[in-house]
Amino acid sequence: MSIFPTKVLLATDGSDEAVLASRTAVDLAQKTGSELHVVFVFRTRAAFEYDAMGFDVGEPHQEVRQMGKRLLDDYVRQIEEIGGVVAEAHFRMGRPDEAIVAVAEEIEAGLIVMGSRGLGGVRRALIGSVSDSVVRHAHCPVMIVRPE
What we know:
Layout: E1 7-11, H1 16-32, E2 35-43, H2 47-52, H3 62-81, E3 86-94, H4 96-107, E4 111-115, H5 121-127, H6 130-137, E5 142-145
Parallel strand pairs: 1-2, 1-4, 2-3, 4-5
Helix pairs in contact: 4-6
């Protein structure tokens, strides 16, 4: 049994921090012989927030879903340009922290890699941090990549 993960899940949002996390995840996957999976979550509000504003909370618009999938395709292309081989790309809509953890469980990831957006203390206290929530709820180790 290897101590290395067989599947690495890279959570990306296209930010500068996510690009750095991409390079880290590609390097880890290559050096450990792990599959590299990528997840992009198109952040949506909770249904009760939309309902309170008078919006229809039914199925999200197809255009939004298509735009999110195009963004994911762009991120995968960027990963491939730096030498990564993406085994599978996963698109979700919802709360990023919950979706990242759910995808990690679905694919039985051995490691989640994600960038840190570096929220300030007050903002983090008010809205929380996606990376903090993923670390607390993930079934596997989580690597948070920070800029130097």
